[in-house]
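Case 257 in the screening queue. Each case pairs one protein sequence with one candidate compound; here the compound is zinc ion. For every case the pipeline is the same: read the inputs, emit a complex structure as tokens, and attach any notable structural observations.

Predict complex for case 257.
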Amino acid sequence: MHEQSVSILSSGSCGNSTLLRSNEECILIDAGISCRELERRMSFFGAEPTQVVAVVLTHEHTDHVRGARKFCTEHEIPAYATRGTLALTPLGGANAVMFTPNRSFSIGPFRLSPFKVKHLAAEPVAMSVTIDSKKVGIASDLGCITPGVLDGLRDSELLLIEANYDEMMLLEGRYPEFLKRTIRGNHGHLSNDDAGILSTRSSTERTERIVLVHLSKNNNTPEVARMTVENALKDNKMSKKLEVAEHGVSCGPFDLG
Ligand SMILES: [Zn+2]
Ligand SMILES: [Zn+2]
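Case 257 output:
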């Protein structure tokens, strides 16, 4: 049996982690919920920690690394990250492996291609992961869409794209001005409108499904995010399966077969 799938264990500021599976081997992209919660949510999808060959961290923010130290040390799993991320992520005795943006590398059946993003962190990346010729593009925690991001995501079968906030909800909401500016800034997060632009500009005929991730609990709703990106796709005469990962809730699995 061949099984290649992607499951979102959690998404949003309360914690991010995505499980990629190729038959009996898995990797986690980010580990932003507690070790126990990672284990519990993996079991929903029929996966066990012993199957995880690596934890790959995109950047050092707590919502991406919260469970990494315990999960990696307890299960003797290597943690992969850029030099900047490793410098600021406490990993205890875990085996830390450094990778460099714009240089592809393999972990078992997974081919990873990390690329730089603009975000208020030391050396943040987004990435594509190719499993058995199926490409998954994962881009969250970025303030703007650069040519490198478009290149990195292009031609993915499955796209996970950040839709953090609705512009009006953020502007009219209760966050202090400096925080609104940071979120909207070039090193902050992507809005629903940005997600619409990124979805239409990075999708090709190969792209079957788009999942919106990292939604803000306070400045967005799944309905508003979906509608905004649906309209952008419609305006560009594109038809894709569209899913929304609700704040803190597991979703998937999305089969790549
Ligand atoms: Zn985040
Ligand atoms: Zn972040």
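Case 257 observations:
- The pocket of zinc ion (ligand 1) is lined by residues 16, 61, 63-64, 141, 214 (CB under 6 Å).
- Residues 193 and 228 are 6 Å apart (CA to CA).
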